[in-house]
């Protein structure tokens, strides 16, 4: 009797573990991946001046544009990340919240959400995901080190290659 139970437990385990791993992998592949594999962020390089004008942004301030989609599976994680950023971003950083449709109407191609665009003193400094990794967590935040000056950029960082939690969008 004990031998039968042991054999049954082994069979159940042998089926359950691979099935669970397969399902977990399928879910993760859907939302975790390269943020912009087609390099669509590159089009932002020539559009940020227009974005400054259309949104009436000051050439002397730092502005973070949050591009969110409530229907994206990564949205809840992003809300937690936003709460963190509200607490730690330096005073005076302007934060705007824009939808994909609104930015597309302004001529901005959004490859995936959630996405941030950082404009500082009228220049594009960063565009891409909030964080590296599948969880979009504050521990792997990309924005704060740039805004606080911990990371110095030679020019705009159009972050297409980072693996992150994202919902890809069609052009």
TrEMBL record:
Alphabetized InterPro entries for the sequence: DUF6436
Domain DUF6436 per the UniProt entry, residue ranges: 50-168
Protein name, UniProt field: DUF6436 domain-containing protein
Organism field: Reinekea marinisedimentorum
